[in-house]
Amino acid sequence: MSTVFFKNRSRNEAAGPGRELRCWLCRGELYPGDPYFALDGRVVCEDCLERYARRRFAHRLRRVGRDEEEDGRGTL
User: Would you say residue 72 lies in a domain?
Assistant: First the structure.
């Protein structure tokens, strides 16, 4: 699924004619030359990368000394 938006047709020439890129998390507009990450079909700006990673991998968060015993592995 793509998160390319077609609202303002003259603002973002880097995305192609008639396309405007916005960050999936903050909804901020990306301008020509702005770096971004294409992750799982979503556009994520540099400022939101940490927030995206925390959401994406939240289910993998473990606590030392507690979660190793619960999941029976003892290692990551």
Answer: no
Number of domains the chain contains: 1
**pLDDT recorded at residue 48:** 98
Please report, for the domain that includes residue 40, its CATH number: 3.30.40
In the chain, the amino acid numbered 46 is E
Distance, CA of 30 to CA of 4 (rounded, Å): 11
Beta carbons of 39 and 52 less than 8 angstroms apart: yes
> Which amino acid, one-letter code, is at 7?
K
Q: What share of the chain is helix, strand, coil (3-state, %, to 5)?
A: 30, 20, 50
Nearest to 48 by CA among 25, 21, 20, 22: 25
Could you tell me if residue 76 is inside a domain?
Answer: no
Q: For the whole prediction, is pTM greater than 0.70? A: no
